[in-house]
Amino acid sequence: MTARPRAAQTWRRPHLPVLLAVAASALLAGALPAQAAAATQTRAARAVAPTAAALPDRSIALLQRIVRRRVDAKRSTGIVAGMVFPDGSTRVVAYGDAGHGRRLSSTSLLEIGSITKTFTATLLADMVQRGEVTLSEPVANLLPAGVSVPSRGARQITLEDLATHRSGLPRDAANLKPKDPSNPYAGYGVDDMYAFLANYKLPRAPGSRYEYSNLGVGLLGQALAARAGTRYEDLVRERILLPLGMTSTTITVPPSASGDVASGHDWAGRLVPPAGLGAIAGAGALRSSITDMLRFAAANLDAGGDELRQAMATARAPRRTTDRPPEQIGLNWHIDRLAGHQITWHNGATNGFYSFIGLDTARRTAIVVLSNSRREAVDDIGFHMLDAGFALSPAPKQPTEIRLPAAVLQRCVGVYDLPGPDVTVARAPWGLRASIPGQPTVRLYAQSPTRFFLKVIDAEVAFTLGRHGRVSSLMLRQEGQKIRAVKVR
């Protein structure tokens, strides 16, 4: 699930990398608010230009060209995108392979990853509006008796803390032990989540600092469903999907819709299994069609007075700053200003999909972009269509592989302390390999004596030399995010 690229990606603050695309952090890379389409572009560099959505016919022609070029260049397997215009009309562009010889269409079902968080935010605002919960209520009040939630002094984690990523909880739980490394959350149950919470110590007081957390929003979804006395999926269907006529959006795909399910593809273009989010469904488990997502976007642009749209407006209202000021966050929605106007957005990513939704409520224009490939994020497309001054991202360039002497490779061998499980770097006949317990081994390709890149995901590992030329740590870079790991043996 991702959340903000600042220039396109995610979700932007990229997801917590793990040396594998199958890692839980990559699974929900999607909406890291820092992943917004602004991630690679500074505000100063953005030109003040008119929105690309000024004219529907012109905008859709442009969107179609962008989508076709990206897919034809194999930067994505397939993309389906759509826009809502000020007159309420919608247009859709679909191009590419849905898997197994099918083409993507307006009815194709794709994983939307962390965009699911905006549905969870809408549920929270709706329940506040109905008097069922309050934003300042501790999440522990909504959970079953005996469930222990960490606190810091007298400060407990509130529902608003969870929805503004200020709970103090980490991005992902450390007690994941997936049977299928390519689907790490599939077997992660509510009992596993509660066990993690019971043993976790908050590093800071809730509310004190922004830190994007899939776990936190997953907990919020569980808590709201518990208060309503139902399942998260059923609560979303009752409160949001049915009222908006979103008939194809779901977590559990019925047999009648199985033919519409698009297949996901990893960074290398290989098929990946459908994501299972287990207990953290509220952070990224929904699948949807572009038709349904445009209904959701249009409802968020609607200034009508019904209760659901009032709840949507409450969820979108700016509340706090993120770790990239002046960017703000509402209830899970991220808010930036491009060319002097406000864009409310979220992105998402699972092992085989990228997604983006952007709203320009003042101009009553919205865009949704869904891709069934983890090859490249689509945030830049969304931001560009809302603001022509926001540049599209260039095609990624893969480094050139070189051969290194055995002694140079050997100094990189060891165990490194990454957040969560350690990563082990070892020798292989062709060079170096890296592994994390419970996940498949990945190959590291040398581009210099200290820098290596991966091909299964867009990531780089740089080794740091200490005294006497010995490697002391490594730096993992993935989609703009950096994580340092000290060599422990």
Q: In words, what does this structure look like?
A:
This protein is α+β, with helices and mostly antiparallel strands and 489 residues long. Helices cover 23% and strands 22% of the residues. The chain contains eleven helices and 23 strands. Strands 5-4-3-15-14-13-12-11-10 form a nine-stranded antiparallel beta sheet, with helices on both faces. Strands 16-17-18-19-20-21-22-23 form an eight-stranded antiparallel β-barrel. A hairpin with a 4-residue loop joins strand 14 (353-360) and strand 15. The model is unreliable at 4-27 and 30-50 (pLDDT under 50).
Question: Gyration radius, to the nearest Å?
Answer: 22 Å
The average pLDDT score comes to 88
Query: Which structural class should the secondary elements be placed in?
Result: alpha+beta
> Helix count, per DSSP?
11
Oligomeric description of these chains: single chain
